[in-house]
Amino acid sequence: MSDLHIRCAAPSDIDTVLRFWREAAEGTSISDDHDGLARLITRDPEALLLAERDDLLRGTVIAGFDGWRCSAYRLAVHPDCRRQGIAGALMEAAEQRFATLGGRRVDAMVLEANEQAHHTWAATGYHREDHWRRWVKPLR
């Protein structure tokens, strides 16, 4: 994995990340647009982590911390690069960020129907909590 480079996203990465998610991520979110990513990067420039190899985007994770809870979103690896340790490397970088910020536990948003993701999260040491359910309300 020494040829894998993990860095924080910059505003110039937004369009590349959005294209990458259309190919590599499962499902979409109301925030998956240029303005949503621009707000994220402006508010927390270290939250969106990118994994690159040979100057190409291979994986992403959003490692958000609000001062109380650590949240992982949009862990995605390019389909041609899966099972190469990229997800684990991204989560290790995210967990290091959280620990530095004083985080105590990571919550991950994982689609119920995405069985492949369940295996990835389990392989990186996470477990499902069946007694919680997500409740949402779009603001627009």
TrEMBL record:
UniProt-listed Enzyme Commission number(s): 2.3.1.-
Top EC category: transferase
Occurrences of domain N-acetyltransferase (ranges): 4-140
Keyword set, alphabetical order: Acyltransferase, Transferase
Gene Ontology MF term list: acyltransferase activity
Short name of one Pfam family: Acetyltransf_1
Protein name, per record: GNAT family N-acetyltransferase
Organism (species): Streptomyces gossypii
Upper taxonomic lineage: Bacteria, Bacillati, Actinomycetota, Actinomycetes, Kitasatosporales
